[in-house]
Each structure stands twice: as C-alpha cells, then as structure tokens.
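Below is how a single chain appears once it has passed through the pipeline. First comes the sequence as given, then the structure the pipeline wrote out for it. We keep one example in the README because the format questions we get most often are answered faster by looking than by reading.
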Amino acid sequence: MSKAEILQELPKLTKEDRKEIRLKLAEFDPDEWLDEDDPLTEAEKALLEKRLKDMERHPEKSIPWTEAEAQLKARFGT
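Resulting structure:
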C-alpha cells in the first residue's frame, strides 16, 4: 500500500483505530511527537519529575486515569 493510499484511508478509520496508529508511530519516532513550538520549560520538567517521584513513593495516593478523567470532566466539563 502506498503512502497516498494510506493517507486516503485514514479518515475512514475509527477514533480507536487512529489512536492505535498514533501509538505505533510514536514507538518508531518518540521524540518527533514532542511539541517543538512549545517545549516544556526546565521548571515544568522539574515539577513533572517531582510529581513522578512522589507518585512512585506513594502509589496509594494515585488513582486510575479513568477516575481522574471523570473527576476533571465533572469539574471542568468536556
């Protein structure tokens, strides 16, 4: 299948199929999926690292993404 054929078929795929394709593409070029126009600042990176370490030290404080997403939607809407 040619690139043109693939691009023509993409809009026909389900949202779940497109997500699966994005994840697979990210495996091939993980750094290419970063937003180069708006990279994280050093302070943002440090904050993420701090929160990840806290999560690793205290996993009992964590909640599954589905629960966090539901809470965010309830609070801020979709």
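The radius of gyration is 18 Å.

See the next section for the split statistics.
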